[in-house]
Every structure is written in structure tokens, then in C-alpha cells.
Amino acid sequence: MPVVDCQGLVRDYALGKTIVHALRNVSLSVDEGDFLAIVGSSGSGKTTLLNMIGCIDTPDGGTVSIDGQPTGGLSSDDLADVRSQKIGFIFQTFNLIPVLSAVENVEYPLLRHRLSSKERRDRALHALEMVELGHVGKNKPNELSGGQRQRVAIARALAVNPRIVLADEPTANLDHKTGLNILHLMKRINKQAGTTFIFSTHDPKVMELAERLVELEDGEITTVGTYRRWDPTGALAHLSHHIDDIIDNMFEHEY
Amino acid sequence: MPLSTHAATLLQTFRIAFRNIFRNKVRTTITLAAIAFGGISLILTGGFIRDIFEQLREATIHSQLGHLQVYREGFYEKGTAQPFQYMIPEPEKVRETIVATPSVSFVTPRLEFSGLLSSGETTTSFLAQGVDPAMEKRLGTFVLMGEGDYLSAGDRYGAILGRGLAASINVKVGDTVTLLTNTRAGSINAIQVKVRGIFYTFYKEYDDRALKIPLETAQELLQHDGIQSLVVVLKRTDDTEAVRKKLAASFAETRQPIEIKSWTELAEFYQKVVDLYSRQFTVIKVIITIVVILSIGNTMSMSIYERTGEIGTVMAIGSRRRSVLQMFLLEGLVLGILGGLAGLFLGILLAQIISFIGIPMPPAPGSTVPYTARIQVYPGILGFALGLSIVTSIISSIYPSLKASRLEIVDALRHNV
Question: What is the ipTM of this complex?
Fold first, then answer.
């Protein structure tokens, strides 16, 4: 059973007097453990599609099912429960709560779960350790670098053990190296924990890491597949992995 | 959700609310100052008015009225026209009943009559009281001597005149004046008395007509040995109503035809002043309430606008709309409590300082005596000031908080955090 199943999604926005068709009949299935990139230029509908999957926006037509549960017709509170139990969010602008420390930020979504305060703190610390930030738990967001903030955001998304993590342009506000590191981190968690990741990007270098690509253009899916360059001998692929390893080693301690 | 989860959520919401308040220190300081200002204004105005009431009350009681006045039944309505028909029967027995009642400090008898006062060629009307000089002096702590001395116990043909009355017939201390009045039998009788002193009270109208002579002298002049009223002075003004009820019950039990009036029923002027100032105070309360509501409403709206992205975030990661509402209402509540407490502290401090210095006041309407007002801090006004700060803070947070909790998540998320 796919963890996300979208069928015939339609979403229109009124922009002044013109109607913008953000999504036109988009259908998409995502399996458990996928590492999926939604690509496309600005305004192609990437964010709208992620919002539909994340249950923070409702389609004008079509259906979204999360983990087999149709979300159409759910109340605002029920949708909040779906998000709190099954979905982790990572934002382009990190969106940490400025007045809370790193560990408190990670704990925040856990407040809606049945946990003792000790369990909650342990899970938050564990999530911070997964993103290698166990040592900055007490720092406030403004005391962290951009890359660290995004990693706290990833820890926050992971803390609830979500079925899916949605990341809208997670690297757009980071420099290239830090961005790649974030992507590598997400990929490692995807491999180790089997968490499903869906992220949007328009950075071709980021796309390379995705196992599956969905390309959107003008609110329609144009391509579904994997990112492949012209590489008849496989030498580039080999080199690419080699470079990934080098980058990993170089930046392991510099996130 | 189990209770502990609710408690944890509330605690975290509270923590966020509290920390957010101190995120923008300048704005918070201004808002707290506005709330505290409201509280201070209430405490100072309320305490000032309270002091005026109390001073006027004590002046009223201790100039002439006492706390309670005891008459023969019907005297209050008809006594002025037929004073001799309404003398207190068995005054000694009545006096004993009163003195035996707890909270009563002392009782003094009075015989009131009107007539004409002459000095040389000049004649004017007066309203006289025949009194027990020693007791009346104890009662009249707000009867001040402008010139000369008070009546003394053995001085049978001495009199003291109100300042206005003395001026109107141009007499001084040491002059002899003639009092002319009707006796009980209807004939006219006159007596000569020596002016021992000239007094004034809080009430000019009273000073313009009043004179006091010893009770025996009055009885001699009227050819009647009765009294019309017994003036009761209590240890505490607050006991007035309780003692009135108790006395009424005692007299009813012994079937004595006695009526009792409390100072509040007799002090028309005092009641008018209280009404007037209370109205003004209500207007001030309304103005302060509006100021506090607007200032907190403004702060909350700005705070919510700045945190739109944050609101979108917490809702995206699973907070219900109710939690968002709760968070901002809590912020309003915390602002109200902090501002209210600051207001209490500063209000009490300022009240002490102002009272120490004193506020010089011009004579009240109808009075000739300037006085010094102070600020009386009393529990009622403190509770009201704190309560108002908190309640208005919550009220003014409701609309902005509701607005925040109804934001569309995707729209809210477009604002950067």
C-alpha cells in the first residue's frame, strides 16, 4: 500500500481577477521508504502539491490518502492530528520557534503525543543526536548556523516517528555545501530508518541524490523517473559516488 | 489525551507565551506601562475619593449629626412644627438602653428650638441647640473655635455662635445677646446670654444659623424640662447600621415609641457629594478600561502579525487551532498580571508618597474650611485595579487571538519566521 496516494488533484487560486491553476489533475503514489524529489521551476506547483500531501491545504478536486486514510472531509482538528501523528515538516526557512531552545523545538510536536516528560525529552535528544546536534540542545535558534538550524528542523520532523517527511526546498536557504550535507543526512536517515522523504527542489545537483523524480510544469506532472545523466560507461556515476564520499568526509564535522 | 499531556502542553504554551512577551522588550515595557498606568490611576483616584468621602463623613458626624439620632416616633416628620408634642418620653430609660448597647461610645441630649437673636438694634433668626457642654464637645471634634472658648459645664448663661450668625448681627466674644422664643405654653420668653466663643464647621449653611447654649438654659427659656433627641456616638462608624438595628429591636421589645435615624439618612449633602464623585469615578474607570484594552489589543495585533509564520509552523507540525488561541490568550493574561502587579506596587508607593506630602484642598462646596486630602489605599480598590488589568487584558486579546487561530496555514507559512 502506498504511504501517499494522490488522485486527480486540482487546485486553483484567485490572484486578483485571474485564476491560477496551481495543480491540474495531478496523480501520484509514494511508497514507503521512497526518497522522492519534486522538481520544477518556480510556480510549477511543487509547493502546492507538498501542501496537499501535508494536509495543510485542501484540493479543489481529487483525493489525498495518507497511510491508507483518505483526508477529504476531515475537520481542522482531525487534520491537525494526522499531521501530528504521521507527517514531519521541513521548511525552506527552517521555521524554528525562536523563543524555544533546540531541544524544546524538537519536543514541541511531541507535546501532542502520549508521552511522559522524560520520554519526550529522551526522544528529542535522540533525534538531535541523529542529526549530530546533541551538543547544542540548549541553544536558541539564533545561536545556531543555518545548517544547524535546518538539522534541528529535521530532528523536529523525525522526533514524532512520522510516516512521511515533507521538505519544501530544504536547501534553498543554505549554501551549496551545507545544502548537500543536509540532503546526505536526509538520505542517510532514509536508508537507516526507512523514513519516506518527499522534497521539492529546483537545484539539479540536489536532484541527483533523489531515487525518484517527479517533474511538474504548470501544475501538471511531465516526467516521473530517476535522474540520469548521459554516462554510457558508468564512469561518471562511479566518480559521482566518489565525490559524494569525499564531500561527506570533508564536511562531516562542519555542519 | 491524558491529563499529564494537557498539563505539559499548557506548561509549554505558557512558557512560549512568557518568553514571547520578553522577545520585544521595548513594546512589552510600553504595554506594561500602559496597564500599570491604568492600575495606578485607579488606585490614586479611588484612594483620593475615598479620603474625601471619609473626611466629609467624619466632619458630618462630628460637626452635628453623631452616628445615630434617637427621637420620639413621628418627630422627624412633624417635630419641626410641633416641637413640644414630640419630646422623648422617659429620656433616662431610653438613654440607659442606648448606653448598654455594645459599640456605643457615648450619648448626649439635645433640645432644639428656633427664635430671634438680638444685639442692640440688630435682630436675626437662629436655630439653637440646648446641649450638654462636656458631651457635645466630645462629639463636636469638627466644631472648630474661631474665637473664644467652647461652652463650659458650669457656665449657665454662656453661648457660642456660628461664625455666619455672629457676623450677621455683628457680635464678638464677650458681647451680650438676647434670645427670644415661644414657650411651650405659647407665650414669648427671652433670655440674655454672653457670647463665649464663635465656632465654624464644615458646613457654612449651618454656621450661618446655629448657636449652642447649655441644656438647662434652653429648658429654662422654653419652660419645659424635656429633650427632643439623644445623639449617639459610636466607637466605629462602620457599626452604624448594626447598632441602629439592635436599638430598634430593643425599643420595639419594650414598646417604647422611639424612632432612630442614622447619619446617612440625615446627611443629604454628604450623600450628594458621594453620588457626584462616584459618577465621576465611574467615568474614569471606563476611560482607563478603554486605554488598557486598546494598548493590549494593539500589542497583541502587532505581535501576531510579526509571528504569522510561526503560527503557520506550529499548526503545520500538528498544533490545533485551539492551542494557538490559547497561546495568545495566555500572553494577554500574563501581560495583564504583570502590568496589574506593577500597577499595584507603584500605585501603593505613589499613594504613600502623596499622602506623606498631602494634597491641599480648597473648601468643599458649602464649606469655608480648606483641608488636606490624602490617598487611602484600601483592599477593594487594589482588588479592582488588579482585576481590571487582568480582565481587560484577556478581553482585548480575544479578537487578535481568534484571528491568529483562524489563519490559513499555507498563507501564514508564506511569512518568514
Answer: 0.85
